[in-house]
Amino acid sequence: MIDCWPPPTALKLPKRKDDKIEYGVIGLQKRIVCPGRPSKSTTGTVLWMKEGAAVPSQFRQEDDVLVIPKFTGGDGGQYSCTVKTTNGYSVQFNITVIAEDLVPKFSSDSYIQLPGLPPSAYRAFDVQMSLKPTKQNGLLFYTVKEDGDEKGDFFAFGLQEGRLVLRFDLGDGVTELASTNPLSLNKWHKIFVKREFNKGLISLLGEQQWQRYSEGIETGLGLGESVFIGGFPNFDEIASGAGFKTGFSGVISSVVINDVPMNLGEKLLNSNDIEQADTCSVNSCLNEAKCVPSDGDFGYKCQCKLNTVGTYCERRFKCNGDVCENGGFCSSASGSRKSCLCPANKTGDHCEQDYYVHGTAQFGTEESFIVLPKPENMARNFQLGMSIKPVGLHDSVLFYSANDLRGTGDYIGLVISEKNVELRYDSGLGSFRGHSPTELVANEWYDIKVERRGSTFMLSVNGVATTLDVFYENGGLSLFTDVFIGGVYPDMYVAAGYGIKKSFIGCIEDTVFINDQKYRLIADSINSGNISSCRIDSEDGLCQTRPDGTLACSCPPGFTGDRCEIRETDGCSGSSCGAHGECSFVRGRQRCRCYVGFTGERCEQLAPVIQHAYFNGHSYLEFPRSLLPHMSTEDVETIEMKFITSEKEGLLLWHGRYPKSFGSGSDYLSVSITDGFLEFSYELGGGPLQIVSSIMVADGKEHRIQLVRKGRHGQMFLDDMEPEVGMSEGVLAILNAEGNVFLGGVPDVSAITNGRFRKNFVGCISDVQFDGHQVKFLEDSLGGLDVVPCTNRFYQ
């Protein structure tokens, strides 16, 4: 009789299909218990081996338990324990141990100790962290120089009353800055913290950023030997200026320092009271995929089954025996003749054929959709601008972004519901719905704008604005999915409060604005399905898209407007101005407005503009924003030009938001003639700065200007005079202007500049340079209207 438990089925067992499977967390202790052991009445031994060889010497055995003090990725594999009794019987048990990333769960006494920062951090470094707090107070990151010339230098950040707080000391006093809004508890957040010389910066990714300079002269941080994550061994010994008294409570899934991901388990030197977080308790994976812990943004990743792809395994690319090619994936429509949903620019049963989508997108079926990358700043700020022409008026998706693709957590979206545009929203404090009173009519165009203002939303349909009060002033949204336009993936779930999955049927203009970012539906999409070119009912023709993303339709006689939606009554036909202009009515008379490079009554004459151009008060040139990128607070930006004017009012240059965007508090940069004087102005978020010339320039003479900006500091050099200088208020120093650069004016001066200016420039502009690079009007411009070369009289 074999005296061991459980009883063996053979003297030596081969590997069995039902061998035990366990998981080891990288960085933590792992204890493997042998499934069999000698019984109490029999003596015996347990021999442990790994994949047929002796276990490493740093492992230790406690009776029938194998103890791995600090589990590493290389410690995963197959282990065997052989139970041998003194009466000569033995049996082997196999245990497969799979390595898991450490996703640490912290309590107020927990911490993880990592190696110190790299030498380059003396001058600058940054930290990105993904976390899910359960309490409002706690240290997240701490390092201190404990000896030497820079003893006492420290860098610490954490939560206090829910707000992200950074404090650092370079040796000449503590600098502190804090976020305005608290982080919501029990939600995932991504934060970014940076030190660059004596400047500190914090950002809640998805919201805004705050920065501050230390008041001393020191610019280097003394580097300690260790970095502590989530807490500290003894808060009585923490630097007094750090201001934290307890450790973080919650989960930290990811730490990235200087763009290098820190595998917390592998890098861990020491720790206290750390547990593996159960980030897969709610499985967000789709199509039967497996959720496994991971040191990524949300603490988990999805292991997809064969024939599925995507972050959540949300897309099946093999269906009904067909393999969808070129990014296509399976339709879920029952009885669908075609198995594959093809992305824009592809068609065919397997998406194997090229198909070019021209201009405006047509959403043709109840599974049509476009996916755009999510902007980073939608947590508390939300603006949306889009233009739609519904063909069907059924309840359908217009816009959707959410916490995940399983339908759990926060979301924000627009739908068509009972022939109205409706906002649907939930920040975790309760769901909300509110609609516009404008009832939609099929085959009509509608311009839709949405803007969040604290606890209210403004929803506008064709200029009819409705204010919707959602009551939740501090409701920050946790949004981690991409943005869905016109529909969603077939296999995903939408939030119950959103409640609609059917796709919009109709046309959506190619240019969509989300939080002051301009998106091209086709060019910027990361996924799409069943999208074709929109046809204009009145002419059965195709719209095209200009380089700037605006719509250009070739209208038949009797129609005009951006989309040929206006039936003409005054005889201005689509061919009146030829191929190089557009028709408009001024005081009841037809007038042609000519594109760049053309002039004449019907825009039939060549008018090349290269380095000088005349602007008539309705003219403008548009250039890509890349010519004035505003990338860093340390960059020196210069604008140079010559001009001649006799008008006392006029906008020379404008760089701000996109023309279809909105918001009076937006960043901008402008050069103008105001009351006859030259004015250089910009707004960085702390209030507008105006630098005004000391002499009038509306004198019909040529003037040469150079404008210089570095962060908040600005200079104006006019002709040979001493410079005028100024500095904007506040601490913000980056110009966040996402629109293109306009010279000589803008299409609608009052609307685009939010009433700051009333007139475009009248006169001649020449020899324009941005950051020392000569601007070529014809080659570099994206477009413009009514611009002609300067006549000789300006240079006599």
How would you characterize this protein structure?
The structure is a single chain. This protein is mostly beta strands. It folds into five domains: 4-100, Immunoglobulin-like; 104-276, Sandwich (Jelly Rolls); 361-536, Jelly Rolls; 544-606, Laminin (Ribbon), CATH 2.10.25; 612-795, Jelly Rolls (Sandwich), CATH 2.60.120.200. It contains three helices and 74 strands. Strands 36, 38, 43, 44, 45, 47, 48, 49 and 51 form a nine-stranded antiparallel β-sheet that branches. The radius of gyration is 32 Å and the shape is globular. The relative contact order is 0.08.
Overview in brief:
The protein starts with a strand and ends in an 11-residue tail after the last strand. The protein has three helices and 74 strands.
Q: Under CATH, the topology of the largest domain is which?
A: Jelly Rolls
Q: What assembly state would you assign to the polypeptide chains in this entry?
A: single chain
Helix content: under 10%
Average of the residue pLDDT scores: 86
Low-confidence stretches: 1-17, 537-542, 545-549, 660-664, 792-796
Give the number of DSSP strands.
Answer: 74
- Helix- and strand-based class? mainly beta
CATH architectural label of the largest domain: Sandwich
Cα end-to-end separation: 119 Å
Query: What global shape is seen?
Result: globular
The value of Rg in angstroms is 32 Å
Helical run tally: 3
CATH class value of the largest domain: Mainly Beta
